[in-house]
Amino acid sequence: SIHHGGSRGALIVLEGLDRSGKTSQCSRLVSHLEGKGISVEAWRFPDRKTDIGTMISSYLANISQLDDQAVHLLFSANRWEKRLSMETKLRSGTTIVVDRYSYSGVAFSAAKGLDIEWCKAPETGLIAPDLVIYLDLPPEEAAKRGGYGTERYEQLEFQRNVAQQYQKLRDSTWKVVDAQLPVEDLEMQLRKFALECIATCQKKTISPLWP
Ligand code: NYM
């Protein structure tokens, strides 16, 4: 794909409750950008392919039990272990579209009752996204969508709490989109936000979370 000499890629994050449509919108967006000749990669957190990701995965599947603080730090470490390759990709001109990031990390742990500032601390110094797209869906609607899976956290009451925690993390990089829109409409909104972001972030330096 095309690499416009010297310009960096954008870090675009999709966030939202479980069943909000992030994963399908991520892949639709990445395909669209690829089609436009933009250098782009789809990432996701947790990255279950690493050793830390394997521990997280068995925790989520209820195969293993872990202390709430310990698993919070594992989710964070799973982002830290990818930080350098993330920075290298962005600097080489590749845009990264990420399915979940530090906001999931904080929202899900804070929903368990952990102190939100404590939850944010280990995320400090990771790369700040250029754009966060929040797929806004009432927890009740999410619950209706083909039902939750069997993983930890996939319960209505808990998701309500997660939604409240997410609201505390909203900042100027966030675009909140209505996840109840038809998928094609949603897709068009995401394309517009992503293309604007890719064009404008080239003048901005890569900066750390949390400002
Ligand atoms: N999750 C995800 C966390 O609790 N902390 C994190 O840092 C991240 C990235 O893991 N219910 C939770 C949110 C999800 C679950 O995500 C797995 P997915 O997108 O279903 O693989």
Automatic annotation (TrEMBL):
Keywords: ATP-binding, Kinase, Nucleotide biosynthesis, Nucleotide-binding, Transferase
UniProt keyword Transferase present: yes
GO biological process terms held by the UniProt record: dTDP biosynthetic process; dTTP biosynthetic process; dUDP biosynthetic process
GO-annotated molecular function: ATP binding; dTMP kinase activity; nucleoside diphosphate kinase activity
EC number: 2.7.4.9
Pathway: Pyrimidine metabolism; dTTP biosynthesis
Gene Ontology CC terms, in alphabetical order: cytosol; mitochondrion; nucleus
Segments forming domain Thymidylate kinase-like: 14-187
Family (UniProt): Belongs to the thymidylate kinase family.
Protein name: Thymidylate kinase
Source organism phylogeny: Eukaryota, Viridiplantae, Streptophyta, Embryophyta, Tracheophyta
Protein encoded by which gene: LOC103713387
